[in-house]
Structures are given as structure tokens and as C-alpha cells.
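Course assignment 3, question 2. Fill in each field.
Student: A.L.
Task: Predict the tertiary structure for the chain below.
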Amino acid sequence: MAGRAGIPVIRVIHVDDLRKNYRDVAAVRGLSFDVPPGQILGLVGPNGAGKTTTMRVIAGIIPPSSGVIEVAGHDVGKAPLQAKRALAYVPDDPALFGSLTVQEHLVLAARAYEVADYRPRAEALLRRFQIYDKRDTLAQELSRGGRQKTAICAAYIQKAQAFLFDEPLTGLDPHGIRTMKESIREGAAAGAAFVISSHLLSLIEDLCTHLLVLNKGQALFMGRVADARALASGGERAATLEESFFHIVRDAVES
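Answer field:
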């Protein structure tokens, strides 16, 4: 994987001292972390912790108040087009175009990212996520799960280096959940970097290699999931990620 001038990229996502203020409210305060190729980072925290804001800043949807954000070696502020071409983002509630069909969303994404010979890949994705029979259905006529699958397939149509998924399992049926997990593992094995935000700690524990715990816009923990579990184990048994999460957050509140 190469970045500027063929220089190897050892971190697909780089966030340095990110700060985001909404008037007098600090949503993110001095956040720094890296996501290298092949890593699946779970982004967790209480409501209002700054998770969605962080993902939207990385995706270039909203500007930071200060800090440096890079995707595949491209500064999101200085080279937004190059950074966005290397990244795919699926928000919590994807805003699809109601008057476009499922298939047209994939065509739109493929053309926007200049994906050559995308039709076989589009068909394979639609079949894998079991939405091929809905390919000519308008987005406004889809179920919540159908809209989610469409957004996921549109994200995967490009071979991005970084993927941001905010509550990716929302609305998915059991097959969709299983397929989503498999696709993330396969993407990471191929060298892509993933950031997954979810309140489902079981998903994070099952899927993610690393964990970033946020509270009030600040990082409480950044490291391997196994290390997070060890914090609350007490040396007697392996703690669950849920126990570890509450241990980390409780210590921050009480300190």
C-alpha cells in the first residue's frame, strides 16, 4: 500500500490533536490515534462522547476546529478529494436518494470513485448481501435493513483503504449480520483499515482487534481489546468487554 510519491503507508488513518467545537461546546478535545492497515478499531463510548463527530471529521463531512487528519497519507483539509477517494463511510442512518434504485446507487458510487468495470463487482455484492432481487427497487420503498444493505454495498463498490461504519448492524437480519462481519474481516485481511462505532459491545468484542474508548470528547483508552479486558480482570479471570468498558468509564468519572 503506497501513499504520496510511492511512500509506503504504515497508518491508513492518522488523527493528531483533533478538536471540534460547536459554539461553546467541545465535542472532541485533543484526540490522537492511528489505524494501520489490517486493524479493526472499535470506537465506543456513552451517548455524546464524540464518536459520530470524530467519524464525520475523518470523512471530511464537517471540518475540525483544529488538528491534523490524514487518510492514506492525504491531509483531509489540504487534499480532500484524494483523502475521500481512499475512504468509504456509512453513517448510522444512511441518507439514500429516494428516487434512485438500489442498483443505481451502486452505479453512482462506482462512477463517483471512477471504478472501472464495476458491474460484476456490483452484482456480486448485491447477491452476497441478499438484495439482488431488490436491485430495481426505489430506495424510498426499501425497509430499514434494505437501505442499510444498499449503503454497505455502495461503500464496498470502491476498493477503499479505510472504512468507517457507524452502527453497521442496524436493521440487518441474521444473514446480513453474519455477512457484514465476514466482509469486515476479509477487508482487514486484505490490508484495509476499519473504524466501527457501536453500542453493541458484543459486536466490538467479537470483531475488533483494537479499542478506543471516548468520553466527553477525550480518549480514556486506546489499545488492544485483549489489553482492555485485562484492566478489569483482577488477575482471576478474563473480564468481558462490557465489564472492561464500565471499569474504564467509571475510573474516569471518579478520578
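Instructor remarks: Strands lie at 13-22, 25-35, 40-44, 66-71, 74-75, 87-90, 162-166, 193-197, 210-215, 218-224. The CA atoms of residues 161 and 241 lie 27 Å apart.
Grade: pending
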